[in-house]
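Field: sequence (string)
Field: structure_tokens (string)

Example rows 1 and 2, in order.
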Amino acid sequence: MKRILLAVISALFLIGAANAETFDSVCANLSKHPNMTGDFSQVKTITAVNRNMKSIGTFIFSLDGIMWKTEKPFPSTMVVGMTSVVQTLANGKQTVIDASSNQIFTSISTTLSAMFSGNSETLKNNFNVKFSEAGSTWKALLTPKDESVAKILTSLEISGNCSSSFADLNSIVMSEASGDKISYSFTNQKYPKELSADEKAYFTAK
């Protein structure tokens, strides 16, 4: 499911001429910082057993992909790219998944990449989007147009803060057709112009 996030963060899309200027401004400001790092808190709600599972760690969002480094409850690293997902456990064991074999992963990777590159056309083609702004906060609700994707993922809700010259990303909520939900909250966000050598290595290592 984290692959779904690589598609969510990639492009914000606004429908309606009345809100076009607001959408254009948010998109333009998001694309000013294609790299985002910080801490995350994930809560997965499993409705069948009425259980919430929480994990915390650090993340990197970039045009090359997403890196999730989980610290608790179990250490692991997951790198989500446009063509593959690589998970590395604390013991060094790796699992590689072909992104093309999972429509959810592909959707998320495309979305996140589009958001940080300012490519709204990707969202227009793949999602119906409702955008709203209240004070200094914005929210976009994306629902997939592809029926096969909608059978698994019903919606992606993205939100953050904005001003006349800045926009950031604070949370993502993925709702599944099963009724389960995955919520991400982001804190201590930083927007480096360039990733460090160690950070880049996550996306170049084989």
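Row 2 begins here:
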Amino acid sequence: MSGTLDGKVAVVTGATSGIGLAIAQRFAAEGATLFITGRRPDALEAAVAQIEGEVIGVRADAASVADLDTLFATVRERAGRIDALVANAGGGSFLPLGQITEKHYDETFDANVKGTLFTVQGALPLLTDGASVVLMSSTTSVLGGKAFSVYAASKAAVRNFARSWALDLADRHIRVNALSPGPTRTPGLLGLVPDDQHSGLLDSLAGDVPLGRVADPAEIAGAALFLVSPDASFVNGTELFADGGQAQV
């Protein structure tokens, strides 16, 4: 690895599996002092064990402001600053219009919108001038999705956060960008359907991607690394699609 993040302090929420874990592993490999979160202590402990480098795990649900306060108190005590923040925690599930419940709506928007908002807002006192913030969006922010409308709407909101916060934080030269992966082989994606439907889901999603396959989480991690690196120093307020062309053609 190139040591792109040597001497930097990074926070990645929702980093116990899938894309979040891959981002955490890549950032640690690039030299970052890393703080990661997860809701389940056992999964968090297992994730920390899989990351080579200086990593501190903090049990936190990104939809809980109290948990986020604990996270940032830990960062303040252990590192005193944040140079790179990836608001990755979130999720969703399928429900078609006509079957959407208040619980489904609340859980999705709390995880993806409320969690992103209060993660970034809570980090503000610790973010260094010139820091980089990455918000995890999705190709559904522009494509929509059958039986996936609540999730898609939540990710469209996250994308607009990047537009607005790039302006709010302009005087501190903090860059805010959205990263929108295409279909990626993660436990979260496979968990949307029963085990015996995994292959069918992946094949169906791959058919929508010009590259003809779904992504590996490490490929999304590479895009996140770019956004927090000096190579992206003039990239701000944008939505970077790492989607194999799915939403582009």
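free_text_note (row 2): The mean pLDDT is 96.
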